[in-house]
Amino acid sequence: MAHDLNLNAMNYFEAVARLGGVSKAAEELSVSPSAVSQQIRTLEQQFGVRLFRREKRRLVLTLDGERLFQTTTQAFRMMRDVRSAIKRQRENRHFIMRVSPSFAVRWLGPRVKQFLDRVPNWDLRIDAAPDFSDFDTEVVDLDLRYGEGGWAGLHEECVLHDYVLPMCSPEYLAELKSQSDSPISQLLNARLIDSVKTHYRWDFWLARQGVMGERLVYPLRFDRSSMALQVARDGGGVVLESTTLAINELQSGALVPLSTAFEVIRFPAYWIVCPTRHTNRRIVRLFSDWMYSEGAAHDTRVREIIAELGCRIRDETGPKVPGVEFMPAAND
């Protein structure tokens, strides 16, 4: 019967057989050699057979001892492996999040190491995917979502504001200025790049400038902000996009505002979204606090750059213009 087995004696036996001697086994087990010998005698009495025989000052397994050793060494190895796996799992915990692709590459990616330095014992998995998580069927701690909020049944908190303005390369701007000195005329002559999953689309923005109905079809359309920004940087046209994603290009001068006459729209854009129960998880709280800190620092940096560019900022909560239907954006 399993309950009759002396597991302590089996452990001592396995160590002696594996290491080839009582003294080595006693050293590994941190006990005295006499204690090991006593456990071996106890096990032999329990089985009613000899497990070792002595040959020229060496302990050699008997046939019965060999059979027992093959079983016990495999069992104890499996238990040691399980113990190590449990220990690793306890020490290296897992944090899984989902985030929009362009934001993951351009903003979050360069900052990930800073967060990992704060949580060195956590394993991090980031899924850069356009689809939101289904928290009822997927194992995900949180989403870092782009949009205007309002996800029913979920906890949500804004951790980062965005700034939107029309941008293009300096060379393309010079080309537009050669045709007209008027920012509106430059806009009407420009090739507009439509970033189709952004929160603020050209339809809304053009309506605010009083040109509703003038340009509602665009020759260039992309479902990734990173692609739209790259085409604008290459001189392909004017893009209405996020300074959060284009901050490096604006700072280096690779992209410039179409005109300082147009206000930069600031609005709550990136949200930590998860089931309310997930907010009790320590890693979720740590990431939320870190995002707040990074978001505040980023906000300060963007304001400084926008001021240096000579643009004004307008705070809003979301695109609302009479006559213009706004479709909530998916993750970009």
What labels would you give this structure?
single chain, 332 residues, alpha/beta, Arc Repressor Mutant, subunit A, D-Maltodextrin-Binding Protein, domain 2, 2 domains, 10-stranded mixed sheet, two-stranded antiparallel sheet, 12 strands, 21% strand, rod-shaped, disordered C terminus
Give the tally of structural domains: 2
- Taking the alpha carbons of the first and last residues, their distance comes to 62 Å
Mean pLDDT: 86
List the helices and strands in order: HHHEEHEHHEEEHHEHEHEHEEHE
Strand tally: 12
Gyration radius over CA: 33 Å
Number of helices: 12
The global form is rod-shaped
Multimeric organization: single chain
Can you summarize the main beta sheet?
10 strands, mixed
Strand portion, in percent? 15-25%
